[in-house]
Amino acid sequence: MRLFLSSYRFGAHTDRLLAMVGEPGRVAVIANACDAWPSARPSAVSSDLFPLRRMGFQPEELDLRNYVGRPADLERTLAGFPLVWVRGGNTFVLRAQFARSGADVALRNLLEADALVYAGYSAGACVMTPDLHGLESADDPAEVRPVCGIEPRWDGLGLVDHRIVPHLDSPTDPQGFSRRLARDYRDAGIAHWALTDEDVVVVEGDRVDVLGAR
């Protein structure tokens, strides 16, 4: 299993992602965390395509809404990509779209077979954790039903054993939601990684590295 989980894009560790993937090739870009924001969604997608192209990748958006009720088709499609890139947005909307499309099962199967690298930031990282409780302080679960037609899910995929708090002390979090959430997890004895926008969690097989700023 190969996971690259960050607070914001590549953090300070682009080289580690490249080492995990090898020669840059096709990459499936999943932007469904932005589905509740239709006016902002196109620019959000474009903002991730450009840096991936600069690194030599060939990014293609893969919209999970096109695979609702077609989990086998989605798994076959994902299997054609050496890298899956899952951007930030609303973690609860992303989790719901994973469930509706079967991406949660397909990605677990492919990762356990080491068939691809999963790179996710912010919501794309948080969705891989065991539990999403606490993230409602920044992401609105009420956006799920109007967009996805189902109730919010509070379970993550559980492919890492710590929760993730992204954007610690980031300019994108001027109200300090992340610092307060990290404090709440710490006070409750909940295992977590509080990540600045430069930090990355890398999982390769049984090895887990938490990489900080340089």
TrEMBL record:
* Gene3D superfamilies, A to Z: 3.40.50.880
Q: Does the keyword Protease apply?
A: yes
Which InterPro entries does this UniProt record tie to the protein? Class_I_gatase-like, Peptidase_S51
What UniProt keywords apply to this chain's record, in alphabetical order? Hydrolase, Protease, Serine protease
Give the family per the record: Belongs to the peptidase S51 family.
Q: Can you name this protein?
A: Type 1 glutamine amidotransferase-like domain-containing protein
Q: Which organism is it from?
A: Nocardia acididurans
